[in-house]
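Table S2 (text version). Query chain:
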Amino acid sequence: MNLPFADHFSDVASAYADARPEYPDALFAWIAATAPSRTAAWEAGCGSGQASRGLAAYFERVFATDPAAAQIAHATGPTNVTFAIEGGEDCSLGDASVDAVCVAQALHWFDRDAFFAQCARVLKPGGLLVAWGYQDIELTPALAAVNDSLQHDIAAYWPPERALIDAAYAGFAWPFAAVPVPDFQLEAQWPLPRLLGYFSSYSASKRYRDATGRDPVAQHADRFASALGNDPDAIVSVRWPLFVHARRKDS
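Corresponding structure-token output:
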């Protein structure tokens, strides 16, 4: 039996779509080069379509699914992406129909046994399963000190699945044989409003607001601005530790 869907993001779907980082193009180029062909890919747990758009540049067709209707409502992509409201555990794709299955920053929410069974069903022989995620944001020292205060405030409001991201999905019972993965970098240059929007899109920020009636990001916004010299045009260099797991179905 599939686990019940824990929806932590519908109420922040718009902020999520606007503020989440875009993944490196090199990752999508590698997936396409490593998959058996570039005909079709499935992105499960697509959210607002960050990875869907990256995959669409390399695969002829992308089927992108998320169980949250609000996320799909905010999802965007080119014409070769089809978005659908579906869980990763009950995909409507046909057997042996895709070259790659991808999950970006979402596998920790899945019933993994059920999802891996779907991967075994829908992947072509030799098809690729790639799951990745990113850990805590890394900032310059002045901004990091303010971020530490924000993270302290919301620490108790993270759902327990957050620990799986912290552990980089260590210990998962992966199907298929492992595929070596190159090192990829997740970096961005953001103005302060984009950075604050990213913090606001956290599920923990939403849970803090619901529990206390206060906005944890707004409470620290002036300190973030001060750390940037109150320069409205300041650009912040940010990066995230990115981990990637890849597995190949037997051919």
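Notes on Table S2: The longest strand covers residues 123-134. The two ends are 29 Å apart (CA to CA).
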